[in-house]
Structures are given as C-alpha cells and as structure tokens.
User: Fold this.
Amino acid sequence: MTNNTSASAAETFSRRQFVRSVMYGGLAFYGMPAFARASRPPLGHVVVIGAGFAGLTAAKYLREWSLGNLRVTIVEPNPQFISCPQSNLVLGGSRTMDELSFSYALSRKQHDLQWIQDTVTTIDPVNKQVTLARGSLHYDRLILAPGVDFDYSRIPGMTSPVTEIPHAWKAGKQTLLLRQQLESMPDGGVFAMTIPQGAYRCPPGPYERACQVAHYFQQHKPRSKVIILDANADITSKKGLFLQSFQGAYKDIIEYHNNSEIIQLETGSKTVRTDFETVQADVLNVIPPQLAGKVAQNAGLANVDQRWCEVDFVTYASSAHSEVHIIGDSISAGLPKSAHMATSQAKICAAAIIDIQAGMPPNPLPVFANTCYSFVDDKQAMHVANVYRYDPAKKSMVSAEGGGVSTHASSQEGDYAQAWAQNIWADTLT
Amino acid sequence: MMNRLHIGMALVCGLSWAASLHAQDSTAQVTTTLAASCAACHGPQGNSLGGTPTLAALNKDYFIQRMQGFKNGSIPATVMHQHARGLTDDEIIALAAYFAAQPRQTPLTAPHQAFQGAQ
Assistant:
C-alpha cells in the first residue's frame, strides 16, 4: 500500500476497468436509478492527509458518493480521533477525555478506507507523489486537511512551547494538563488566558473556555479570577451572548481585557506584560497565533500572508496546485474555523472531486450550513447558525440572509449542543 | 435551476445523452451534498441519534410546511429559522424530497475508546 509498485499496478487496473466500462457499460446506466450505478468505472486514487473532522468526512463521502469507484487512502499520524468540540467542558469538569476519544476502526471498515498511520515528509505536486516517513504514495487527487499549526515565533518571551504553559488548543494531553493545573491551583489564584490576533481555530472557543474555567471556580474556588488578555479589539464571536455571562453569572470572576497583545512574557513566573498592565498568573494558558498545518506550509501552499491557504470554493483546489485540495482550518476564508464548517467543506470538495474525475463540471454554486454551539456552564449553551452560498463575483462563500445567534444561553440549547456533538461524531466516524 | 443549467451546458457542449444523464445525477448530487450539511445536527442521511428531529422518511409536505413556517416566522424556533431563511424555496422543496426518500434506520453511534494520551 505504501510502496509504489503495488499502487501503480492498482492504478493500471483501474484505468483498464475505466476504459472497459466506458466502452461497454454506457448503455447499462440507462434507466437505472442513480444510486444503483454500481458499474460506474473507477475514478482514480485520492490520498487524504489528516483524519480530523475535515479529512475523515471527505474520505467517507468520496467513497459513498462515488459508489466505491474512487480509491481513498488516509494518512494520519494519530492512533485515535479526539474531538476538539466539547474539550473546554473537560476544563469545566462536565466531560472526560475518554468521552471525546474515538476509534477510527469503524470508519475504516464501513468505507473500506486504506489507512496509513504515518507522517508526511514531502509532497511533490508535479509528480503527484507524497513521501511518508515509511514509504510513498502516488495520487490522482490529494486532499490536505492538516488543521492548524502554532506560531510561537510571534510570542515575545516564549518563542518555543513551554510544558508548564499549555495551549490546550488541540484536544488531548494538553487539555488534561491544563485541567490538572486548575485543580492544583489554590483558591484565590489567577487563571490568565491570552487570545491571539487574527484567524484562529474556533472563534468563540476562548470565551467558552473562560466561562468553563469560571464555572469550575464558582463551584470549587470562588475567590479565584479569570483574566482574558485578548489581542483583538473586541470579543470576536457571539459577543453579546458572552457579555451576558461575563457581566452576569461570572461578573465577580471574569475580567475581559481587549487590545491586550503580549508585549513580553516571563515563562518562569508566568507573567504577561501588555500595553496596559502586567498580569502574574498562577495558571497561564497561551493560545498561540496560528497558521495552516505544517504539511501545507512545507508544500508552499500557505500562500496568503504565508499563513493560510488560498483555495477555490467550488472545488477547494489550491490556487498554487489545482490537483491539491485543501479543506478545514488551514484555508484562508471569511469562514469560522469550526468542525461543522470543516465537514461542510469536505462534502463540497468530495462531490467536486468525483465530478472532476468523471470528467464533468462540479456544482458551480455550492451552498452549506454552519451551526456552532458554546457552553457557558455544564448545562447551558448558545449558538451561531448560518447558511453560506458561493458568490461567483466575490469568489468566496458569503453568509446568506437570516443567520444569527441565540437570544440567550439556555438548557434547551445545551441539549441541542449535546445532540449536535452526537450527530456530527456519528456522521464523521461511522 | 441547476437542472436546467447543467442540461443546458451539456447541450451547448454537444455532449451525448449519457452526459446529460450524468447532468441529472449531478442535480441530485447537488441536493444530496446540501442535505449532507444538515447531518451535523440531524444525523447521517437525516437519521438523528436523538435530541433533534429525524428527517429521514419525513413526509415531504410536512417538511416544507415546517421549513416555510420557520422561514416566515409563523413557527417559533431557536435555531431553524436562521437556516430556513438562508435557503431558497426550491432548495426547501428539493431537501423535502431528498429526506422523504431516505430510509429511516437506527444510526450507528461513533465508537468511543479510552483516551490514549496523544497531543
């Protein structure tokens, strides 16, 4: 699977089958329902790098919608799927990491995905070749879904990761470490969190996190403080809703400070200096500035401000290489970097690749939805919901009329948020 | 509209009937792709794991009635009015037909596993 010879043999066979099907199979399509076209010729080999929400969804729907006529190989270094959505609830104490951890086995089996647990070393878009730590792969189409990478070079005083100062912005060990630090912190302590300027994964995530930590403090350490040092000019998502919590239930705990970029950070004492103040924290959470995943950067695909990847929103093809598609958090878009968005993009991309491989034009006007919930405590949540349509003049996905946010956080929406999680996990992982 | 556009394109290009057949498939795929965007809350092919309505095998007229009600505000909603208002009437009709045609089944649950310590 990882060696060239067998991959080429499989592709030669596919092409022969393709030609034969075109020659003899054409008439067989007539009168058959679209879904029964099992004789559809093989449409080539797609390699998907990254099995998060975006990559795994693309792989599933490439197989399903091509009726198995596209071969799909996934390359993913991690042994299991960890959900970033709801990982802030681990900090608040109402979720465990086990509840957010899933096996890839069912998805592999259900969709007959070829799976390589490995890391990518280089991509050669000219020869359509991916080199892995332990082998190489040839593709007809490549999908990159590497998520975000962290840019520590922009943090004065902390230009490389420091174990004691977790980001917890990719769910897993880091989430547990931050939770342990909060548990060990004495009552009356200070939890400080820094939010980077510009695009980052999960726009409402930092404010949800502040609420979750405040919820934990309220229950267990009521004299403690949450200080949000936001490099942005204002709350970047669900502002009015988060202010209801910051100024309501958590008014004695949360302090929100805008325009608070890190001027200097002292890692030993966990001290952050901004233009306005110096904050010494007991527990410090630095959410680093972000950019496209390393795989995309190394392949020269991060061509917007050298941070994010420019794509065509009809096919998600990179503007640098038309046979390399990029989906999810790595792309440059006026779209929130959310899990639902990643899966919606993945589905558009999968449908477009099937059309292209079949020699047909992809849908020129894609439409999709995004719904994103944030929890303010263990039960109450609120949402932002929008439909997005492709605007050919602007060459971007534009928010349709009628979208919006909740009027207030509620337990009813908390139940919806749990239903969202169960359903998007099932859609992605089965 | 998509239907006409695709068939129109196929005719202009002088493609065979086989290609226009694919064009019809493409129209169906456009709705399938749009409907797939609903899965985050309503489950795969509209089979919800609970907490939100199952849309699979839902009566087509009822789907349209509800969605139009969300869209024009006559049916109160927490979330759905914001999605319904973003969809065209044609899209709502196409989605109604798509979900009505999906078999109602018990969806598979995502397979939980003990956390193994990554990242």
Notes: Residues 1-41 of chain A have pLDDT under 50 and may be disordered. The radius of gyration of chain A is 23 Å.
